[in-house]
Amino acid sequence: MTRLTFLGTGTSQGVPIIGCRCAVCQSTDPRDKRFRSSALVQMDGLTIAVDAGPDFRSQMLAQGVRHLDAILLTHNHKDHTGGLDDVRALNYIDRKAAEIYCEERVLETLRSDYAYAFAEHKYPGAPEWHIHLIDERPFRVDSLEGTGDLEWVHDIGYFYRQADGSLLPSDNAVAEAPHERPNVIPIRGLHGQMPVLGFRFGNIAYITDMSAIPEKEFAKLQGLEHLTLNTVSYHPHHSHFSLEEALRLAERIGASHTWLTHLSHAFPSYRQFCSELPPTVQPAWDGLTISD
Ligand SMILES: [Zn+2]
Ligand SMILES: [Zn+2]
Ligand SMILES: [Zn+2]
Question: What separation in Å is there between the alpha carbon of 9 and the centre of ligand 3?
């Protein structure tokens, strides 16, 4: 069984937006409080986060997460990568680097946004990431296994303990993603002009920050129990599906349930929004868990 918990369902500024006095931003319904979009997937004994935005720390605390086998990144926007520094806490518990799966273009952005995490001589306590490069090909996430245990050597930094007992300075090594026995199916989409990825786990597909899906990708979206789609507005948007586009896609893909995410205060509060949608489509909310 695959389970997906929505850690955040809000647009890039979250809901409420700082300083906004609109009815949605002032709603007292907890389902109108939306962290930046992210999800936690549990399958085959693995715990996987999709994206790690600026609310990552609060999201990990809210779900009581103490361990992640992988963090998959959909694309390089800050509302999806801004929390990656906070994997430090998990580095410490796991005594290993965090296993991060992303495309080459996302890695390039991480190298400039987080230069200190890639520095040759990192300061003690800098985040430890082990990057796996992925593309549109299905790939496999395994439970944590690494290059030895990550050990904190006081005042010096993290080192990998080798089989012979020696210590090797840690590094943000880049590895090719293993494509044998895949358990994650990437779905290519476009976010405006930018190529991005969604992911299918079992019969659950998680798509965020897309405004178009190439025709050939629809074969990967058949037989779904749950589909997640992003929308930010009733009106056409340059890089996200409008509500109308999302509803049309939901109908075409035909999952038993479609959940809307990356929602903004342009939509009404949760209860009213539900009443405007067809029976198989609902707004997701932070903390909602679905399973296939
Ligand atoms: Zn976003
Ligand atoms: Zn507002
Ligand atoms: Zn984006």
Answer: 13
Nearest to 237 by CA among 273, 209, 196: 209
Q: How far is the CA of 211 from the centre of ligand 3 (A)?
A: 10
What value, to the nearest 5°, has the Cα angle with vertex 281 and ends 188 and 193?
25
Q: What is the pLDDT of residue 121?
A: 85
Domain definitions of the chain by residue range: 3-291
Q: Show the DSSP H helices in 114-238 as ranges.
A: 115-118
**Ligand in closest contact with the CA of 51:** 1
Which of 238, 232, 182 shows the shortest CA–CA distance to 208? Answer: 232
| pLDDT on residue 177 | 75
pTM over 0.90: yes
Pick the CATH number of 3-291 from 3.40.50.12370, 3.40.50.10580, 2.10.70.10, 3.60.15.10: 3.60.15.10
Per DSSP, helices labelled H in the chain are 56-63, 78-81, 88-94, 104-113, 115-118, 243-253, 270-276
Spacing, Cα 209 to ligand 3 middle (Å): 5
Between the CA of 135 and the centroid of ligand 2 the distance, in Å, is: 36
Q: How far is the CA of 235 from the centre of ligand 3 (A)?
A: 17
Give residues whose Cβ lies within 5 Å of ion ligand 3.
Answer: 77, 209
pLDDT at 233 over 70: yes
Q: Residues 241-268: pLDDT tens digits?
A: 999 999 999 999 999 999 999 999 999 9
In this structure, are residues 160 and 171 in contact, taking their beta carbons and an 8 Å threshold? Answer: no
What value, to the nearest 5°, has the Cα angle with vertex 107 and ends 102 and 109? Answer: 125
Q: Ligand 1 mean position to 269 CA, how many Å?
A: 20
